[in-house]
Specification:
about 300 residues; alpha/beta; 6-stranded mixed sheet
Length: about 300
């Protein structure tokens, strides 16, 4: 059984807007799932519904085998949520803020656990600081500490590094990786494609309330990623020579560069024949380089295809 199971989940608001349109998703124990999508795609609505903040219009969600409506308390005890908004009591000390969150779940006081969480998040030195004295990045760490205080087995991170500098973002990636090693299941929504590439096991793409794809990150990149060969020429050409007509080439950089796209998963790339044809056409090559489509290219393509299909 998956740690989180979602079946035909729908959310329709009174005005008629349908935020979730029959979402089906299984999230395995101990994995990191990155959920990508543009603004208004349904990411936050999906997380809010799983966490019991928003009631679904129809469908079923279970967390650790507990229905989030029929066995709300058991399901919610397994969940930690780090929301987008920083909503903390500004005059309270960091350590009291985290202790209070643990108490809300009826957990007994555990100073050793709280100390461990704060040290993992580089907050121990700030434990007696008032929240209002912290930077925005440190406040986000406090949100994570609050979410971890009751020892959840599923952690939702809703845009956790929005507005955080690059160095702090990478520190938080390390924290997430450590939580995964502890067996915590992590669901991350993000606008940062590199975040998904850096830490996720699987990637899901959501748009207009529909899951377009959920797949292992490596196989997704391999299956859908196109590679591109750049051939820089010594002398620019005005047009692609007719001898290279069998290849789907494009010309860039004022005729100084030939671009050749090919499928990295194909049995033969055609690069050998292309290079021989380039030499046969009398073109002198200055440099050759290959690059692979990023997850961002794949994501943009999926969303564009969905929009075209809807028209």
């Amino acid at each position: 059984m998956a740690m989180v199971e979602i079946r035909d989940l729908r959310k329709k608001y009174d005005g008629g807007f349908e935020a979730l349109k029959g979402v089906n998703l299984d999230i395995e124990e101990g994995e990191i799932l990155a959920l990508l999508g543009p603004n208004g795609a349904g990411k936050t609505t999906l997380i809010s519904t799983i966490c019991g903040i928003t009631l679904p219009s129809s469908g079923q969600i279970t967390v650790g085998g507990n229905d989030v409506i029929e066995a709300y308390r058991a399901a919610r005890n397994l969940i930690g949520l780090v929301p987008q908004e920083i909503n903390l009591e500004p005059f309270e000390k960091v350590i009291n803020t985290v202790r209070f969150s643990r108490g809300l779940f009826g957990k007994p006081r555990n100073d050793a656990l709280i100390e461990n969480i704060l040290k993992k998040l580089s907050l121990w030195d700030k434990r007696n600081s008032r929240v209002m004295e912290l930077s925005g990045g440190m406040k986000r760490r406090v949100l994570i500490a609050k979410a971890l205080s009751h020892e959840p087995r599923v952690l939702f991170l809703d845009e956790p590094t929005a507005g955080v500098d690059v160095e702090l973002r990478r520190d938080m990636w390390d924290t997430v990786a450590e939580l995964k090693r502890d067996g915590v299941t992590i669901i991350l929504t993000t606008h940062y494609i590199e975040e998904a590439e850096a830490i996720a096991d699987r990637v899901g793409v959501i748009n207009s309330g529909e899951i377009l794809l959920v797949e292992d990150k490596a196989s997704l990149m391999s299956r859908m990623g196109q590679k591109e060969l750049r051939i820089d020429l010594v002398d620019p050409v005005a047009e692609i020579p007719s001898a290279l007509g069998e290849f789907e080439l494009s010309l860039e950089d004022e005729g100084k560069t030939l671009l050749y796209a090919y499928d990295s998963a194909a049995e033969r790339s055609g690069i050998g024949r292309l290079m021989a044809a380039v030499a046969g056409a009398g073109l002198q090559v200055r440099d050759v380089a290959t690059s692979q489509n990023s997850l961002e290219d794949i994501f943009v393509g999926l969303v564009a295809n969905q929009q075209e299909a809807a028209q």
